[in-house]
Amino acid sequence: MQVSVNGRRREVAYPDEMLVWVLRDELGLTGTHYGCGIGACGSCTVLLDGQVARACLTPARAAAGREVTTVEGLARGEQLHPVQRAFLENPLQCGWCLPGHLMSAAALLERTPNPTDAQIEEAAGINLCRCGGYNAIRRAVARAAELKREDG
Ligand code: FES
Ligand code: FES
């Protein structure tokens, strides 16, 4: 089966595996993290046609004919995505949750360029941070919105 990942057609040998394992083990995209495996923590969050999806609960087969975006696909060449720059300005602790927050924030800002505090809270809250870095996460998402608007 072929899947489009970060704009490239990739051959997948195990389409019945969960997407998180296909990305990490078959395609070498280890930026997508694995935490709980039950859809609760969000560390495996990727985008499927721009919508957030838990890769630990999504069979790779479900990505056929759709565009998968992982954290490796956020930057444009040397230019980091606004959410990446914003989290560099607002660093977290261990960073295990970071890929999920980056993907959730990127999806939020794509559909909501001027998010309210409540929308930021909601987007930040769908992924868990075991280090309790929610203040930094909220600041980073708000900053990312500013940076994205500046980028135009
Ligand atoms: S590993 Fe997928 S939600 Fe936790
Ligand atoms: S920074 Fe450690 S889990 Fe979020």
List keywords for this structure.
5 helices; alpha+beta; 152 residues; binds FE2/S2 (inorganic) cluster; globular
List the helices and strands and how they pair.
Blueprint: E1 2-5, E2 8-11, H1 19-26, E3 45-48, E4 51-54, E5 67-69, H2 82-89, H3 98-111, H4 117-125, H5 134-151
One FE2/S2 (inorganic) cluster binds at residues 92-97, 129-131, 133.
Concise summary:
This protein has 152 residues and is an alpha+beta fold.
Distance between the termini: 37 Å
Helical proportion? Answer: 25-40%
Structural class: alpha+beta
The number of distinct β-strands equals 5
Bound molecules: FE2/S2 (inorganic) cluster
Q: In what range is the share of β-strand residues? A: 5-15%
Tally of separate helices: 5
How many whole angstroms does the radius of gyration measure? 15 Å
Arithmetic mean pLDDT: 96
Order the strands across the largest sheet as they lie in space. 2-1-5-3-4
In the predicted model, the low-confidence regions spanning at least 5 consecutive residues are none
> Per the principal axes of the C-alpha atoms, what is the gross shape?
globular
Order of helices and strands: EEHEEEHHHH
